[in-house]
Amino acid sequence: MSQNAYIFNQLCSLLPRDHFEYLVKKHNANYHVRSYTCWDHLMVMLWAQLTHRDSLRDIEAGLRAHGEKLYRLGMGKSVNKSTMSYANTNKEVAVFRELAQKMMELASRAAGVKNGELGKLAGVLELAGVFAVDSSTVNLDLKRFGWSVPQEGMGGIKLHTMYDVMREVPALCLVTGHEERDQTFMDDYPYMKGGLYVFDRAYVKTPSLKRIDDGGAYFIVRRKKGMEYRCLSNTGSECLPVYGDKRVEFTNRWARKGYPGQLRLVQYYSKERNEVMDFLTNNFQMSPMVVACAYKNRWSIELFFRWIKRHLIINRFYGTSANAVFTQVYVAITAYCLVAMAGAMYRFKGSAYELMSVLSVILFEKQDLSEIIRRYENHSEEKAQMPCWPTLFDTMDF
Question: Which residues does the UniProt record annotate as the domain Transposase IS4-like (predicted)?
């Protein structure tokens, strides 16, 4: 990329500008807007995420220091706190939600398969992909966020996510109030034919599992305690770690009505948990160890939730309205996808956190981003090759 372009502009060039403008027109989101458009607001909120701004006042102060650069950065001529606050409350959140979804699609294409273990298994088993489905809650103070439905004395929002385990990027994210049950959105997820979907036991909803099966996709879900079933056959050896490999069917009337067919029950002993874990699946070709391995890799979605909560601003909000909160979360997901796409494009060998740390301090610099990444990686390699000097706490043999 050109050395005459700001790093922030080079990064934002990965955004689908034409698609964003289509979304703005679709939702008539710039109606009666003279200066601070949806695009301006997106640029400001992305900059705030990437530089870890704590509040609108912090954003205003940071941008004021670079006032002469704002127009070239696509943020308008000037940005003040009241303008950002009004935009947070009134800009159409659907624009940012649909942009985040588009960015997840682009990041998935750019990333390629990273999880080598599952990638090889998926190729052998001819799977279209491996996806983990879960949700994470962000608590809100009811005194400030009065619109949130109280549960156990707290308000909150819930981030329902389908995570592409093989590519290590989210495939779908939906923000709702925390009162919404996980099962409610099982029928809203797009299930790919030949894909494998891994759920926790909170997602045991037999009609939805039947819908996945009818669509030609596969699922792995932990069996709920108390779910009654009839064992039709057992090919397990009762030897650890695979305790059982059974063909079963539900005996409960309502469960059987939702899923009248047969299922496979894999009973796997987890040494870490010191317990036998029961997995239900509609795939009868996988080995029991592959079923357990696929479920174990569901942990990657938990790491994703931890990452965005720790390294992006979704625990502290720039506004108290539902519109402001939801918009901020969707912009955070867009920022995550931007970093993932940049890392894939420049073949960055480090972690997403390292790349974001580098970007956060050079966004307003005019340098070639690819050259900066190359120098950073060379420096990291040189540092790794440096001798480790003894310290006071080293144990040394004389």
Answer: 129-338
Q: How far does Cα 169 stand from its chain's mean position?
A: 6
For residues 314 and 332, is the Cβ–Cβ distance under 8 A?
Answer: yes
Q: Is the pLDDT of residue 232 over 70?
A: yes
Counted domains in the chain:
2
Average pLDDT estimate for 343-349: 85
Examine the domain organization and report whether 328 and 251 are in the same domain.
no
Strands 195-199 and 169-177: unpaired
- What is the C-alpha end-to-end distance of the chain, expressed in Å? 54
Based on the number of CB atoms within 10 Å of its own CB, is 52 exposed (0-12), middle (13-18) or buried (19 or more)?
Answer: middle
Q: Is 270 in the same domain as 331?
A: no
Please give the single-letter amino acid code of residue 310: R
Domain ranges, residue 266: 201-287
Predicted confidence (pLDDT) per residue in 104-157, tens digit: 999 999 887 775 666 666 666 778 889 999 999 999 998 899 999 888 778 899
Q: Could you tell me if residue 311 is inside a domain?
A: no
Give the C-alpha distances (Å, rounded to integers) separating 197 from 118, 203, 218, 256: 13, 11, 6, 21
Nearest to 253 by CA among 216, 206, 213: 206
- What integer best gives the mean pLDDT of the chain? 86
Identify the CA nearest to 84 among candidates 62, 57, 66, 65.
Answer: 57
Show Cβ contacts of residue 310 under 8 Å, excluding neighbours closer than 6 positions.
none
